[in-house]
Amino acid sequence: MVALDQSPAWKQLAHHRDAMKLKSLSEIILGDPRRMENCELALGGLTFNYAFNAVTDETIDLLVKLAQFQGIEQRREQMFRGDTINVTEKRAVLHTALRQKDGKPVMVDGRNVIEDIKAARAKMVAFAKDVREGRWLGATGKPIKHVVNIGIGGSDLGPRLATEALASYVTGLQVHYVANADAFDLQSTLKNCDAEETLFVVVSKTFTTQETLLNANSARKWLTDKLGDAAVAQHFVAVSTNQKATEAFGIPESNMFPMWDWVGGRFSLWSAVGLSLMLAIGPENFQKLCDGAAAMDDHFHTAPLAKNIPVLFALFGIWHRNFHDAHAVAILPYSERLRNLPRYLQQLDMESNGKPVTRDGKPIDYETAPIIFGECGTVGQHSFHQWLHQGSDIVPADFIGVREDDLNAPDHHRVMLSNMVAQMGALAFGQAEGKTPHDVYTGNRSSNFILLDHLDPECLGMLIALYEHKIFVQGAVWDINSFDQPGVELGKKLAKMLESPQGTPAPSQAFMDAFMRRATPKSKK
To answer: Is the predicted pLDDT of residue 525 greater than 60, yes or no?
Structure first.
């Protein structure tokens, strides 16, 4: 098979890029009186507009041909069907099944996983209602007021993002998230909690994740010091597959919620990993979140490639990454409640597509995942936006805005929206003249515009699913496995070796041991 960067589609795009260099983004935008309308696609309460992107109809046609050359339509069908597309771990990839609405069977190893999903969701809903409505009582008979989610990575970032984004839907309970092994994270959270009214949700597929178990055991000690060992069963639940380990911890099987190998951690918000989120916003709003994601799934699954929002979103990223040497993407949500979106997307994107080899293990000689970074507007404007506008690196940006002012603060909302549009315009058009050379903006810097009608569960579900599918498409075009994370494991292995050294260390370990001794607190005399 012809390598991606040697394919006719790739070479045509390289030739097109050279021709496009003769045009500025300003010329492209202003040369089409209907560009704003022509470059806009909408799905429910989400609008995707690429008018400020340095692409033309010809660019899109050539990018779609590249995607077709890489078999994107077939790979998309394989994912939705439940084929084993995670080739290194020999697993299906079915986060889409978690929010499927039509109940159509999805078979994995001869088992209809939709039935498993329904059973797990029913258990989540019943538990969430019991806690939220005061029927689940702590060991001393008091209802729960605080929920502490203990997890890390995909067991933390997705539920944390959604809980903050949907803050106006959070009722009754105070939900906290603890991830860092630094004791300050847990200790500062527990300062605000009463043990008699606190429920811990420990999220770890294997129930062996080092940081999660460290925090869970410290939380257990905090609780049992106050209420005794018998209280654990009323104050801890687990989202895991390791029943033996959770029971040894003191969590009965009835307090255990399932996870499955066919859902990767960073795609698991829609599963029992989202239990703390469901406790925060209620089962009905959790279902609406899933419904929004399902709407994006259906669009991604059925829309023609040239009118498919996730596909175009992904292909524009490939255009900038592989043909314009863009090493990074800025995620710029103009909403304080979406401040964790850049952090969430760092894992979703960089852990998925930061890979050096193809699906069959051959070295890659073209760029894959870019650096993902960002900050919510308008805070970022007084930080790194200077670099975005006049730095020597050209960095495309995703601007995410919300049309509705649900806080009843029109002055604030107008300032947010006007600043967002102004930033996109300044990046695109620049400023050719100034009093000094320092005042000149070159412009010619692309951005995508994603507008949500409301910051509600449906729109948030569509937004998150949009990025999930964007990442899938880019991984498929780059011919990499977006659903494993082997690079994460080496650091974990070395950390365990440094904590419990055994045998004769290798030279590299001996060198690290020396650093470990330097970092270890000196004993007090």
So the answer is: no
Measured CA to CA, the distance from residue 73 to residue 68 in angstroms comes to 7
Span 430-447, pLDDT tens digits: 998 888 989 889 999 999
pLDDT for residue 169: 98
What is the pTM assigned to this prediction? 0.96
Strand partners, 199: 147
The enclosing H or E element of 401 equals strand 397-402
% residues pLDDT > 90 (the chain) = 89
- List the catalytic residues: 351, 382, 492
Confidence (pLDDT) at 366: 96
Q: How many CB atoms lie within 10 A of CB 7?
A: 16
Please name the helix (run of DSSP H) or strand (run of DSSP E) that holds residue 198, with its range, or none.
Answer: strand 198-203
CA separation for the pair 257, 264 (Å, rounded): 16
Please name which of 77, 193, 201 lies closest in space to residue 131, comparing C-alpha atoms. Answer: 201
What angle in degrees, to the nearest 10, is found between the helix axes of 210-227 and 489-499? 50
What residue type is 102 in one-letter code?
D
Give the distance, in angstroms, between the CA of residue 452 and the centroid of all CA atoms in the same chain: 17
| CA atoms within 13 Å, Cβ hemisphere of 185 | 19
For residue 93, give the nearest of 248, 238, 265 by alpha carbon. 265
| CB-side neighbour CA atoms (13 Å) of 466 | 27
Residue ranges of the alpha helices (H) in 157-282? Answer: 157-165, 183-190, 210-227, 232-235, 243-249, 275-281
Task: Give residue-wise pLDDT tens across range 324-363.
Answer: 999 999 999 999 999 999 999 999 999 999 999 999 999 9
Quick one: which H or E segment has residue 41?
A: strand 40-43
Q: What's the pLDDT at 283? A: 98
Distance CA 203, CA 369 (A): 27
Torsion of CA 49, 52, 53, 55, to 10 degrees: 90
Cα-trace Rg, the chain: 24
Task: With CA atoms as reference, report the closest residue to 416 among 381, 459, 389.
Answer: 381
Side chain identity at residue 374, one-letter code:
G
Cα distances (angstroms) measured from residue 123 to each of 54, 128, 175, 219, 494: 48, 9, 20, 24, 38
The string of DSSP letters for 107-145 reads: EETTEEHHHHHHHHHHHHHHHHHHHHTT-SB-TTSPBP-
∠ CA 238-241-245, nearest 5°, is 70
Q: Which amino acid is located at 244 in the chain?
A: K
Residue 49's DSSP bridge partners are 40, 449
Distance of alpha carbon 353 from alpha carbon 324, whole angstroms: 18
Q: Compute the distance between CA of residue 345 and CA of residue 161 in angstroms, rounded to an integer.
A: 10
- How many CB atoms lie under 10 A from the CB of residue 419? 15
C-beta separation of 262 from 82 below 8 A = yes
User: Taking the CA of residue 97 as centre, how many other CA atoms within 13 Å lie in the half-sphere pointing to its CB?
Assistant: 27
Map residue 100 onto helix, strand or coil: coil
Q: For helices 457-478 and 72-81, what crossing angle results, to 10°?
A: 120
Q: What's the pLDDT score for residue 432?
A: 85
Q: Are 328 and 373 in contact (CB under 8 A)?
A: yes
Grouping H, G, I as helix, E, B as strand and the rest as coil, residue 510 is: helix
